[in-house]
Amino acid sequence: GLPTLYIVTPTYPRAEQVPEITRTAQTLMHVPNLVWLVSEDASVSSPALLSYLNESGLNTVYLRVQMPSKYQKVKNKPRGVANRMAGLNWVRSNGKEGVIYFADDDNTYDIRIFEQIRWTKKVSMFPVGLVTSLGVSTPIVRSGRVVGFYDGWIAHRTFPVDMAGFAVNVEFLLQRPQAGMPYKVGYEEDGFIKSLGIKASEIEPLAFNCTKIWVWHTQTKKNDPAKPVAQNNATIGTNMDILKE
Ligand code: UDP
Ligand code: MN
After folding, report:
1. Which atom of ligand 1 is the closest one to the Cα of 40?
2. Residues in Cβ contact with 205 at an 8 Å cutoff, skipping those fewer than 6 apart
3. Ligand 1, closest atom to CA 104?
């Protein structure tokens, strides 16, 4: 059969959480043989998230872990690291074959990327569209091999890629029990891929030699919370908790 796709989605409670999870879920409904690990960074589980996951019919695993308190205090936090690691460790304990992919809750996915990463033998990479003037973060491919990277911030990274721009074979991961993601802002991807001990020449370029953008690093605009202004709840015809007295 098809190799299993383990999709690890870090999420956290905020007004945007359920809409982001809704968009991601509706995409993943088109993807067969999938385990969706939704890993929440929270001290208590969000009931609306849990009920959405239960109603979705998707093959979900819910995990909850909090960002260590020393990182919660700093301004530039290593977002999603503790919860991605919880997903990674779940796959280490429960996965035998297939592919793991880190899919943030707020990105935009074309289902073609899932059918391509499914066949990753070691580590695959592909472009990530950016909604900035840069336009994309991508491996540079010559004659079918990754020879460099295009990204707005190369820094001193060996693998200057976006979190959504790579996937890893599960058996390959299981052979590397020390591999993990550092709590180092900006270096999470690079640190993780380096910990896998892979050479750039071994990377499998996908999306037609990295010529297609099948995942976008999108962000939902933060809105100021509006004050409730409903004056006649009886006519609204809703049972949402927010309108209950
Ligand atoms: N995230 C998290 N805890 C946080 C902040 C973010 O688990 O305190 C998750 C978030 O839901 C997303 C991922 O980590 O799936 C990356 O966060 P965000 O989208 O805010 O980062 P950006 O894309 O702006 O770098
Ligand atoms: Mn994001």
Report:
1. 7
2. 124, 125, 126, 139, 141, 144, 145, 146
3. 15
Mean pLDDT of 56-79: 98
Residues across the chain: 245
- Secondary structure (DSSP) of 93-110: HH-SSSEEEE--TT-EE-
106 is in an annotated binding site: yes
Q: Find the catalytic residue in 40, 188, 189, 204.
A: 189
Rounded Cα distance, 154 and 195, in Å = 18
Which three-class secondary structure state does DSSP give residue 234? helix
pTM for the predicted model, two decimal places: 0.94
Q: pLDDT for 15-53, tens place per residue?
A: 999 999 999 999 999 999 999 999 999 999 999 999 999
The answer on pLDDT for 245 being more than 50 is no
**What residue ranges line ligand 1, CB within 6 angstroms?**
10-12, 41, 67, 77, 79-80, 83, 104-106, 219
pLDDT at residue 73 is higher than 60: yes
Q: Is 115 a known active-site residue?
A: no
Q: Which of 8, 9, 12 has most ligand 1 atoms within 8 Å of its beta carbon, as the pocket-test mutant?
A: 12
End-to-end CA distance of the chain: 52
